[in-house]
Amino acid sequence: xxxxxxxxxxxxxxxxxxxxxxxxxxxxxxxxxxxxxxxxxxxxxxxxxxxxxxxxxxxxxxxxxxxxxxxxxxxxxxxxxxxxxxxxxxxxxxxxxxxxxxxxxxxxxxxxxxxxxxxxxxxxxxxxxxxxxxxxxxxxxxxxxxxxxxxxxxxxxxxxxxxxxxxxxxxxxxxxxxxxxxxxxxxxxxxxxxxxxxxxxxxxxxxxxxxxxxxxxxxxxxxxxxxxxxxxxxxxxxxxxxxxxxxxxxxxxxxxxxxxxxxxxxxxxxxxxxxxxxxxxxxxxxxxxxxxxxxxxxxxxxxxxxxxxxxxxxxxxxxxxxxxxxxxxxxxxxxxxxxxxxxxxxxxxxxxxxxxxxxxxxxxxxxxxxxxxxxxxxxxxxxxxxxxxxxxxxxxxxxxxxxxxxxxxxxxxxxxxxxxxxxxxxxxxx
Length: 430
Ligand code: EPZ
What we know:
Blueprint: E1 2-7, E2 13-17, H1 22-30, E3 39-44, H2 48-60, E4 63-69, E5 78-83, E6 91-92, H3 94-97, H4 107-114, E7 116-120, H5 133-141, E8 145-149, E9 152-156, E10 165-167, H6 173-183, E11 189-193, H7 199-210, E12 214-216, E13 222-226, E14 234-237, H8 242-254, E15 258-262, H9 270-278, E16 281-286, E17 289-294, E18 304-305, H10 317-324, E19 330-334, H11 345-350, E20 354-358, E21 361-365, E22 374-376, H12 380-392, E23 396-400, H13 403-406, H14 412-417, E24 422-427
Parallel strand pairs: 2-15, 3-14, 6-7, 10-11, 18-19, 22-23
Antiparallel strand pairs: 1-23, 1-24, 3-5, 4-5, 7-9, 8-9, 11-13, 12-13, 15-17, 16-17, 19-21, 20-21
Bound molecules: ligand EPZ.
Residues 23, 26, 102, 128, 130-135, 170, 172-175, 196, 314-315, 337-338, 380-381, 408 line the site of ligand EPZ.
């Protein structure tokens, strides 16, 4: 096991490049099951979750080849070619699904392409029980028969799927993606109301259209899909990671730095930029990147409530909380998406933060400075909030269980070190 050691107090300066979005890449890879032709995806990040999804798709019959990295200086994204010429297996095993809940995104494509699927129930994770009831209800409306047995979803559509009007009670990202992919091959029209509007879904829809799907209403809350007989191959470049972009914005702000974030799009982080603007952070688009620094050296406390896109993303809540621990004044953060996404609080408190939680709300009172301490990562986004805190803290911070970080951040230590951070990844002797 590795740990990350940070000596805080150094402002980040220079240029950092954003990788392709993990949460776009995973459904895009699952979409390769919808055709027997080659789907080529570029700008893929080098992440554990991407490798896990590749392993799962390989077990289902997909041939996957990696076309190396883009030349240095360009975006370093990996190029993968995926071809599920034949689906040789329709089971997504517990061993893989428990590692990565996004494995459930093969359910819709397998049903649509092969008429059956046996996918392990993902089970919960650190941030909440994470049920998939909305996925299953929607697929049943598309004509699938769904049973749960021995921890597995047993789904069948022997007569094939057919279009339906589905109203999602909650704008679930994963349910929208599963149902969107399944509907592409379901004869008739499918209307998906209260669909999630995250940019990663627009990216998936764009790729599906390139594969021959007929989809309207992208970026609105209502998707209309006319099913087609088959989809063909395509090439698609994965959208930039808006969560990584937001993370770098906050890293620059918490260290009072001055950063250029390449491959970043301001339109994908609108709500975040608004909130950071209120907190005293100046962000402007210049060319293909963003320039970020504090306006006048001071940070103000700002209240935030997480919400589905285009609201403030839950995946940036922990990072924003780290920033607010050193703001002048108080801020209230409400986590309205997941049931248990405050596990970074006790760790930030160990570093001297003043945070009081009450159910889904946390009140943060800014302190003069954090102090470095040994802390423990618990989930992907909590782990990076501890890194941000360590960048600003006086003294040394050691973040353990950094395998969480490897799931969602590509080469984070190198990227931050290249901007002047005193940060390194070392073997955890304990
Ligand atoms: C996606 O998860 C992301 N993961 C999450 O990112 C992100 O936090 C989340 O969307 C919200 O934006 C990927 O894209 C791989 P949801 P997903 O379905 O699809 C409840 C990260 O850090 N719900 O929108 O699982 C659910 O319990 C990860 O990169 C149901 O009740 O999110 C949760 O409370 C973490 N029933 C809420 O909805 C369902 O059938 C949001 O879930 C589905 C969801």
